[in-house]
Amino acid sequence: MAGVEIRHLSKRFGGLHAVDDVDLSIREGEFLVLLGPSGCGKTTLLRMIAGLEQPTTGQIHIGGERMDDAPPRARGIAMVFQSYALYPHRTVSRNISFPLEALGLPRAAIDEKVRWAAEMFGIGRYLDRYPRQLSGGERQRVALCRALVRDPKVFLLDEPLANLDAKLRNTARDELKRFQRRIKTTTVYVTHDQVEAMGLGDRIAVMDRGKVRQVGTPQEVYEEPVDTFVATFVGQPPMNLVELQSALLGFRPEHFLPRDHFAAGEPLQSFPFAVRRVEYLGSDRYVYGTVGDGAGDAATVIAKLPATVGKTIPEGETVEFAVPRRALHYFDGASGVRRP
Amino acid sequence: MTHRRRFADREDLLGIAMLTPALAYVLLLVGVPFVLAIVLSFSTATAGSLSFGWAGFANYRAILTDPIFRRALANTAIVTIGSQVLVVVLATAAAQVFRAAFHGKRTARFVLLLPWAVPVSLAAIAWTWIFDSTFSVINWTLKVAGLLHGWLYWLGEPALALVAIIIVQAWRIFPFATVIVLAGLASLPQDVMEAAIVDGAGFWRRLFYVELPLLLPVVAVAVLFGVVYTATDLGVVYILTGGGPANTTHVLPTLAFQRGIQGADLGQGAAIAVFLLPFLIVVAILMLRLARHSEVGSR
User: Fold this and answer.
1) E strand segments, A36-80
2) B294–A89: do the CB atoms touch at under 8 Å?
């Protein structure tokens, strides 16, 4: 087991800074999620750790050893690709054994290891099948098995759940987390799905345009976003931002509730909320509308009302809504950086 | 405003109209000569007269007991298999080279394709100089390099002449095969190749355990084309050796030409030519099967 140290790492493709001077320290045994929109450089960063891309500048240390010049096979990493990248012409068992064959292990040792890994993921009875005969979830497990048998120091996972249907994704997420807790191998996980990031990560590194904006626990990232990018990228629906003099006022949709819902005496910030449309989603209602102080432009905001708030919200009317003062965030109007 | 369907709207008629020329072409220029060749192979027809007698299997019996024919049959197999083995190795290697990015790649690819564009007869004439008994470039080069101590009579010794024929046939087919393999390489899933890299496989392991198995259907297509081109080719052997020395390097097409046209024995010439047919049909079926069986991935 080992941690990963990334220092001043950059990757340029022509004039584009895909990864721009990233410093990141991944602790031993940690589950770190690289989260960001497509094109933010998270996959490029992962591929540089894997050794599939050569950094333009900067250093990568794995387990204390400098690795940015080492070939992928020498880095002690294993990778799971979004498409799983199974060898279509090999059976499941020959897929899992491939990295072991490359190591030149004796046949008996390979067979034993393959069986052990396959049992761990419950795919023992598919060993003689070909990838094309498996479902998406089964293929994903084969890919994990193939990564596991190498006894890697670091697992690199590139959106491994993206190709699963929504229902399966929840189970797979749970399995993945339990599996990682059990083997305690340092894991770097790339995703653009913030629900996955929040659910899986010990810590999340939020990336945008090649830079790491914030590294922190899911709670820190959600509750204390360092800037408006993190604030609006994490959370569904995103944080509302309302202009207030030179500053931006931010609040989460779930904190934006009808004023009479709050206990008397709680310090509140009130807004007249011009309701445009109400969306009924079963467990929640999303209320879309605008708030404005009458002077500036009206800002579009969303309120997320849990089913426990029974009040009827009439569309097309203005209702008094409020946010508790403790749930307010202030950001600089120009730079978007959080104000203390 | 008319509501009647025009000719262009009648897909049934339009289809027939558009298919007719192609069908006529195939029937008249491929089907008729093909049937004629089979009929001739059972006849006593000669080039000098219009007489047409039924010969039964006499022509086939005659050629089967003829040592020159047997030699030609064996040569056809040797040249075809030998050149295709060479082509597969060379094309795979060349495709690896052309996959890499380097300066002048476009030019190099253009030059690579040239042998395929050159008319067979012209190329073969150039090769007769390369293999010339006095001026052979190959011999002089080997001599200067100190690798050769006697002299090689390329087209004068039966075994060497066969080697020469194999080299020219391989040279002719190899560019086409390279292009096919290159296309196949480009269609391989990139992440599978990267998975193999991350899994610790070196170049040769990746080549033999991942790339080539995945390329098999594509290579099979290249070989199928190569086999058909080589086994039916008349020009290279005809110009290079003319079947000599002493009828030892004939292949079926040159022998058929010699017997049927130059020797005027149309019946026997046709029998020799038709002999290729079952051979090529089997090859085609085998190759197509292989391609289908090894088809992987999406299905």
Assistant:
1) 57-62, 65-66, 77-80
2) yes
